[in-house]
Task: inverse folding
């Protein structure tokens, strides 16, 4: 899939290109520092997706999308400000990424793009992802906590909870601790299955039993199994609703 990056900050373009190297199905064919340059490159390359900064000198990314009447690929907005999220989806953006962009969050956006375009990974590409230590729900992991050991499929892990420098994994009746930060664990988990609910928790989407409105625009989910109740922060609630919407 061909991609163009439109962002007035050279460092931001470089960082995004570096992150996109983790996705061999994406080819960055060009980059632009403003929407005027971007228009010309879009007409020339006919990309599948553009990564478009919201705030740029002159015409903003949102204004440009609303006014542009030429060939329009899928749009993934990138910005440091979350107040533009609602407007972005009003103009039918595929996704909205907050800077600094996290690899796991970018992976979610690429997955949406693949679904939208009907793109299927080849076995070669899947193999390359596995070589980068990307774990799927079907992978089995070895866990050792004290004298106890487990060999469990990730699909059985319903909840990951940060405990300082450790993460507590919840599966069946077990709650072992592993020496790993929640951020490090998140980078290795399949974002189509495991969702970062807040600073302390990652939940398995397949274990959600109930969703309720919560304080300050957030949500609370109840998990199947032991009935753990986990708050989804206001910021993450926007992502959660978009991820699970039709």
Result:
């Amino acid at each position: 899939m061909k991609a163009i990056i439109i962002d007035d900050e050279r460092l931001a373009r470089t960082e995004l290109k570096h992150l996109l190297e983790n996705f061999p199905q994406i080819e960055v064919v060009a980059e632009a520092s403003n929407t005027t340059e971007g228009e010309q490159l879009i007409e020339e390359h006919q990309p599948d997706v553009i990564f478009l900064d919201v705030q740029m000198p002159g015409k903003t990314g949102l204004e440009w999308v609303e006014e542009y009447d030429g060939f329009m690929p899928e749009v993934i907005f990138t910005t440091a400000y979350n107040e533009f999220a609602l407007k972005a989806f009003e103009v039918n953006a595929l996704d909205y990424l907050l800077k600094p962009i996290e690899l796991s969050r970018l992976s979610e956006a690429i997955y949406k793009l693949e679904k939208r375009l009907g793109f299927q990974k080849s076995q070669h590409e899947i193999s390359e992802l596995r070589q980068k230590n990307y774990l799927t729900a079907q992978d089995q992991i070895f866990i050792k906590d004290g004298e106890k050991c487990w060999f469990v499929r990730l699909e059985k892990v319903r909840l990951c909870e940060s405990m300082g420098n450790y993460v507590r994994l919840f599966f069946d009746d077990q709650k072992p601790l592993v020496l790993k930060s929640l951020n490090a664990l998140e980078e290795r988990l399949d974002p189509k299955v495991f969702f970062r609910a807040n600073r302390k928790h990652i939940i398995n989407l397949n274990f959600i039993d109930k969703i309720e409105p919560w304080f300050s625009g957030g949500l609370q989910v109840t998990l199947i199994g032991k009935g753990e109740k986990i708050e989804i922060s206001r910021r993450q609630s926007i992502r959660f609703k978009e991820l699970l919407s039709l």
